[in-house]
Amino acid sequence: MTDARIISIAEAAVDELDKMCHESKSLWRAERCGVPEATIWSKPGSKVRIFQAEAILAAPPSIVFDVLHVNVANVAQTREWNTSVNECSLVKKLAPNVEVMLTQTFAMYGGLVSARDFVNVRMSKELPDGGYIVGTTGIEYEGIPIKAGVTRGMNGVMGFLILPHDQGTRLIWIINTDVKGWILRSLIDAAIPAEMESYILALRKHVATLQA
């Protein structure tokens, strides 16, 4: 696959992510969420169920963007708040705002899913209002071996919309992940909302420390 083709895939992912973030909630089902100033929704996707979380963060969009995008490959920093990440590395930079990334996780969803890795292309854009959008989707990319004991998953279109808010940032986060393997998808779908709650709480705590 050529670099130009991968960049076009990334551009389409950003457009699709933006569409999902702004579409009517009548297309989504509300999920249980016990986190204040946050909601979780889901809807059927082409292969797996897609989840959306929305939360208010007491930090400006620039800080949230740095945490979720700029510094995510600094695994030591990322593990301070996101303990599921084992590895996140740049495979190839295709443009100033487009990269092929390899992410490897530890066991996920309370141990329900063993270690996985994902090869993604991601694109980021700064928005006119001072926010950001980061779109990601899985791709087939040659030359990246799978480590022993790790299963390669495949992501659909997912990512973050990071918007200014009078309290700091309004974050919209989409998960669209096929973890592969033999685990029943219904069990994974039941576990994702709790995982998203934990992620939001950890992210809030982390961005607060960056401003202390």
UniProtKB/TrEMBL annotation:
<feature type="domain" description="START">
    <location>
        <begin position="1"/>
        <end position="212"/>
    </location>
</feature>
<dbReference type="GO" id="GO:0099044">
    <property type="term" value="P:vesicle tethering to endoplasmic reticulum"/>
</dbReference>
<dbReference type="InterPro" id="IPR051869">
    <property type="entry name" value="STARD3"/>
</dbReference>
<dbReference type="InterPro" id="IPR000799">
    <property type="entry name" value="StAR-like"/>
</dbReference>
<dbReference type="InterPro" id="IPR023393">
    <property type="entry name" value="START-like_dom_sf"/>
</dbReference>
<dbReference type="GO" id="GO:0005789">
    <property type="term" value="C:endoplasmic reticulum membrane"/>
</dbReference>
<protein>
    <recommendedName>
        <fullName>START domain-containing protein</fullName>
    </recommendedName>
</protein>
<dbReference type="GO" id="GO:0140284">
    <property type="term" value="C:endoplasmic reticulum-endosome membrane contact site"/>
</dbReference>
<dbReference type="GO" id="GO:0005765">
    <property type="term" value="C:lysosomal membrane"/>
</dbReference>
<dbReference type="GO" id="GO:0008289">
    <property type="term" value="F:lipid binding"/>
</dbReference>
<dbReference type="InterPro" id="IPR002913">
    <property type="entry name" value="START_lipid-bd_dom"/>
</dbReference>
<dbReference type="Pfam" id="PF01852">
    <property type="entry name" value="START"/>
</dbReference>
<dbReference type="GO" id="GO:0031902">
    <property type="term" value="C:late endosome membrane"/>
</dbReference>
